[in-house]
Structures are given as structure tokens and as C-alpha cells.
Amino acid sequence: MSFRARLFAYWMKKRPKSLSPTKIIALAFAGIILLGACLLTLPAASRSRESSGFLTALFTATSATCVTGLVMQDTWLQWSGFGQTVIICLIQIGGLGFMSAATLLVFLLRKRIGLKQRLVMAQALSVNDMDGIVRLQKTVLVGSFVVEGIGALILFLRFLPEYGAENALRWGVFHAVSAFCNAGFDIFGVITPDASLMEFQSDPVVLLTLGALIVIGGLGFLVWQEVAQKRRFRHLTVYSRLVLLTTLALILTGWVLICFLEWTSPATLGPMLWTDKLLNGLFQSITLRTAGFASIDQASLTEGSKAVSIVLMLIGGSSGSTAGGIKTVSFIALILFLVARARGRESVCVFRRTIPQGQVLDAMTIAFILIFLAVFGGIFISATSPVGFTDGLFESVSALATVGLTAGATRVLSVPAQVLMIVYMYFGRVGVLTISLGFLAGNQAEERFRYAETKLLIG
Predict the structure, then answer these.
(1) Nearest CA to 32 among 6, 1, 67, 3?
(2) What are the pLDDT digits (tens) for 190-213?
């Protein structure tokens, strides 16, 4: 037997017999990123018709697929029409999940969806139960395209009189998809490079439309389905009620704090009319929830506003959505746990229901890991790049929570820091559920023995 035949026989014997849904999701996202990077490396993808280089292409493909929004160069100036098309396709696939794209193809071909595919769907949508998962996937697809279509139409009508039909259509579709998927990519560089939405600071149609798309995309697919079916708040599940109330509370809290801290700042809200100050303060609070669009200069924010921004970015959106971060319900579960412990109670209750202690510990584990990685990233960036710790932490959290806002650090990152941000963006999108925290549900075997308890001094 030849060496090649022996090698093939060894591989057939030792190869993994099957991949778990979490591994399939992780590998699929990695494959999509690599494919996107290869396409963006082509000279045709760059406006200069010269290859951008693999690292820049990989950084952009990761940012697009992981719906983050951090960019090394202005998207309009760097990428041609072909490159922008690749980016928006990566955003759509990454935002809805690769299983949504695969399921759409299955629906079109009228194929039967097997148990394995249903398991992967459930994992991709962050749903624990497979009951009704195909129906939920259909709701995700139809709802996403309808919401994006409405947003694109509103933006098209807004841009049409001033910029013409071609620009209005391209900008409407691109930014509706980017906002709904919480990606934060923009192609307004044709007006003013690197300005994001700053040209539209006084435009409520643009800011409120994009803000609404961001919020809807960040609520989570399961919440959509419940709201559409039950329509009354008191009929919703505890989870959906927590998502809606926490989202509203975070937006209002961020709005008040940003306006308070930036109201007189000459570099941000200071020179604006009071109506524009309120509008941009609201949009800043919304976009911090993992969207990445900027209507004010993030580098010019006060230290207090940057601290508020870091906290809001780290919390992020809701589970099973296009957003990243710790997630809203995990955050509120931790707050409820702290309140319960401060009162000397063992159980964590909300809406006359008890949250299982295991889920509280899961939320605590997720939060600790993300905070640890964020701080490590801030230290690493400030140590390897000409960036202070606050801006480095801002950048680190932005990548890890797939936000995409930057305080000016992205363009000056060292190569090691760029690689770290690529890893963080991938980790943030594929998620703690499917990569690092698989152990939370992976090992269900009971412990064979238990050591004797010991008392510690706490506090």
C-alpha cells in the first residue's frame, strides 16, 4: 500500500465521526470569513485596483461577518463596488447567521430539514428548544427582509431628491442592512471620508430610521415572534418582557447620561441646537448597543462619556439577535442576583418567577470572561500601539462586543493588536455559547465524587 493510501486510511479511521452544532457554527463562520478575505484581497475589490493585502482584507471580512464595523480604511475610499457588495453580503450572512442563508436555500429547493439541521438552527438562533424552530427560522428570514426593505425604502425616499436615484438606492439598501444587522459599516465616505453619519447630525429621518433598525435587530428573533403572536405585553414570556424593559431602560439611561456629559462639550453636542443635541444623544445611546454608526466624534467624547460608552457596549443587545456583548437579560439577571444577595436572599425572582441558580452562574461566568478579555485587550493595545489605556479599552470592548465604534485607535493599531482585534471580533460574534463556554452545556455527566466543604472569609 502506498504512503498516500495509508495516510488516507489513517484519516478515515481517526477522523471525527460527526461535528457538534457548536463546532459547525464556529467552523462555518471561520470559512465565511476566509472566503470573504480572499475575495477582498482581489485587486478588483479595491478602488485603486491594487490588492489591499491579506491582513486588511481579513480584518474587514471579520468585521463584516461578525457585524462589528471596525475598519482600517474608509469603506467607500478603500473598496470598489465589487468590494462593497462582498462586504454587504458578509454582513447579511453574519447578521442573520449562516444557517439562515442555508435554510433559505433549503426552502427554495423544497428540501426536508433533518434533525441535525434543526439542532444547528437552534444553536445559531440561541434557542434551547427545537420545538417550532423551522417556523422561527422562517419568521427570521421574512421579518428581516421586510424590516430591511421598509428601512431601505424610507432612506431611498430621503436621499432621492438630493443625491439622485442611483446613490439613493445604493445607500438605502446598504445602510438598512448594515443598521438592522448592527454592523455599522457606511459608504458615506463619498460625501466626507471617515465621517460616518456626522453629515446627518441634523437629519431626524436618517438617524431615527437607522436607530429603529438597530433596536429591532438587537431585540432578538424570539422576541419578534412573541410580540407578533401575542401582541400584549402581559402575555409575553418573562424573557421577552425582560428584553423589552431592559432595552428601553438602557436606551433612556444612556440618552440622559450622554446628554448630561456632552451637552456643553464644544467638540460634540455643544455647538448644536437643543433639538439636535437630544437627537444625537439618543442616537449615541442606541448605536452603543453594538451598532457602530457615529453621528458625533467618538475620539472627542469626555472621559465620563467614554466610560458610559464602554459599559453600554459591554452589555450589548439581546440573545439570538444580531447584537453582541454580555446580553441584556444576562446583565439584568446579574443585577437581580446582586439585589437578592444584598437582601440576604438565596433565590433570584422576577415577575413572580424564580431564575434558576445555574443560569445566574452562567451569566456571571460570561460577564467575568468578557470583562477579563476586555481589560486584557485594553492593556495589550496600549502596550503595543500609540494609544492610551482608555482608548485601548474602548477599542477592545468595541471589538469584543461587536460594536464597531472607535475613539481613533483602529488606524494606528500595531499588527499584533490588529490580530487580537480579529480574534475578539470572531469570538464576540460566534459567541461564548458556541466557542469558549461550550462547557456550560457540554459536560452533563454527574460528578463522581465531591470534596468536603470548607469555609472562607468573604468580604
Answers:
(1) 67
(2) 888 888 899 999 999 999 999 999
Round to whole Å and give the CA distance between 421 and 374: 11
pTM: 0.85
Give the pairing of strands 348-350 and 353-355. Answer: antiparallel
Exposure string over 36-65, b if 16+ CB within 10 A, otherwise e:
bbebbbbeebbbeeeebeeebbbbbbbbbb
Angstrom distances, CA of residue 97 to CA of 139, 212, 284, 352, 429: 14, 21, 26, 34, 10
3-state SS, residue 403: coil
202-252: pLDDT as tens digits: 999 999 999 999 998 888 777 877 787 777 878 888 888 888 999 999 999
> Shortest CA distance to 309 belongs to which of 334, 284, 277?
284
Q: How many CB atoms lie within 10 A of CB 315?
A: 24
Number of H helices, E strands in the chain: 18, 2
What are the structural domain ranges in the chain? 18-435
**Quick check: helix, strand or coil at residue 272?**
coil
